[in-house]
Amino acid sequence: MPAKKIASPAKPATAPVKKVAARKTTATKAAATKPTAARNSPARATREEIAQAAYLNFCGRQAIGLPGDPHSDWIEAERRLSGD
């Protein structure tokens, strides 16, 4: 008896895959053009941030019974937030 040939399954036709290069965003370009000094300088604290920090200074001072006044709490909060 002669050998039977088995048909191989047909391969589906595939379209060639296009490679797309990644594009840089404009935000990346804008960040790269900023001067170094502007990026490294600390941001100034807002009045609300200073007020909250001064209140926390007041609460902490009162909790341990230290004397003081609101003005010194405010000055201390500004000093801490400025990084000095």
Give the termini separation: 98 Å
* Major sheet: none
**Strand-residue proportion:** under 5%
Computed over alpha carbons, the radius of gyration is 34 Å
Query: What is the overall silhouette?
Result: rod-shaped
Order of SSEs: HHHH
Work out the number of β strands: 0
Overview of this protein structure:
This protein has a domain at 42-84. It is 51% helix and 0% strand. Helix 3 crosses helix 4 (70-82). With 84 residues, the chain is mainly α. It contains four helices and no strands. The model has no long low-confidence stretch (mean pLDDT 76).
Please describe the topology of this protein.
Layout: H1 26-33, H2 36-40, H3 47-63, H4 70-82
Helix pairs in contact: 3-4
Spell out the key features of this protein:
mainly alpha; 51% helix
In short:
With 84 residues, this protein is an all-alpha fold. The chain contains four helices and no strands. The model has no long low-confidence stretch (mean pLDDT 76).
